Amino acid sequence: MPTLTIGKWNGLKRTSNEAGTFSIVAFDQRDSYRQMLASKTTYREAVKIKQAVVEALSPYASAFLLDPEYGLEPALYLHRTSGLILAVEKSGYSGDATYRRTELYAHWNVAKIKLAGAQAVKLLVYYHPKAGALANEIESLSADIAEQCRNHDLCYFLEPLIYSLDPRLPKASPEFARQRPELICETATRLAATGPDVLKLEFPVDVTFDPDQSRWRDACAALSEASPVPWVLLSAGVEFELFKQQLELACAAGASGFLAGRAIWQEGVSMSPESRQTFLTKTAVPRLHQLTEIVNAHARPWTAFFSPAPLGEESAFAKYGAYSGFHK
Questions:
Q1: Apex CA 181: angle with CA 180 and CA 185, to 5°?
Q2: How many domains is the chain built from?
Q3: Residues 36, 58: contact at Cβ < 8 Å?
Q4: What CATH code is carried by the domain that includes residue 135?
Q5: Tell me: the pLDDT tens digits for 178-217?
Q6: Which element (helix H / strand E) includes 308?
Q7: What pTM did the predictor assign?
Q8: pLDDT tens figures, 107-128
Q9: Fewer CB in a 10 Å sphere around the end CB: N or C, the chain?
């Protein structure tokens, strides 16, 4: 079984529940977040909306995923029991819709995420395993972030989103839907080899074109078999009731929890402050509780994948520059 250093082991403990499963709320949206807001919304107002969501939900989340543009100030309001994950990539992608590159900030990086007190780094990439040189480029980027996370002893969550390389075959088409399960499994296998500790993955079936839940279950089981590291389910903005169904099937088939945002809080963004607070308290918090109950009942803990570095092994502690000095 692979072993984890002190920082990574404690980082996964801080971002997971007591059972070692994940109930993580994502609110690292930036470009898409602005599109959800009224055009007259100021930057300060956008920050305050994120803060309200963080304050309402973080007492019940194992961790929160935030961004450096709108999320650093809200991170100050995290509940003491909630871990912090920060996004390292810019929002969106460069290139065209069939050739997507992930871009990083010039002045934001893994080292600064460590300084901000986060336990983990999240990288989102657009990926297609048949993209040739571009796929290799994305794999190299992920491997580089993984190395930086190892150097800073931070956990690394990788979020690959598949897309179509053929403009005649959109992602939301029955033809692409038939490819989706295999593409997501191959993506998980290939990108897990680049060094992430956790994969944040799409549901492996496009349920618009395949309503058969037995095939959903089989696809989730195949994904668990394909991924050598823990994987958590993202919500992709689907309605809450559908996400709840997907999560239960995914966790029963080997997923380790969820890292989801819009399915939990999206309706509250456009509300008045008073209505938003009511929505968060009366709707979003109960949603989070329901999802966590599913995770607690069915999810596979990350401790099934990793063990801590052996205490008697000096090499495991050499990077801290202390073990040999204290134990001679």
A1: 115
A2: 1
A3: no
A4: 3.20.20.70
A5: 999 999 999 999 999 999 999 999 999 999 999 999 999 9
A6: strand 307-308
A7: 0.95
A8: 999 999 999 999 999 999 999 9
A9: C
